[in-house]
Design a protein that fits this description.
By secondary structure, the chain is of the alpha+beta class. 38% of the residues lie in helices and 30% in strands. α1 packs parallel to α2. 12% of the residues are buried.
Amino acid sequence: MITRDELRKADKLRSVYGNAWEICTDVPDVLYAWRHENLAKLDGHLVNVLRAGDIDELANKLAEQEAPQ
């Protein structure tokens, strides 16, 4: 079950990444973040999904995804 502290951290992640990512804390023992990307050249879209066991792992994965390549 997600703790109050983890919920606060999830709210902070939503404030940072909320324009690009949907963050789900509703599933027990696992956290998800996903975003849809339009692929205009391919006439379709891509769904990028991140799965983490705790909020800190999810924060690290989100930061990694958003870091300049």
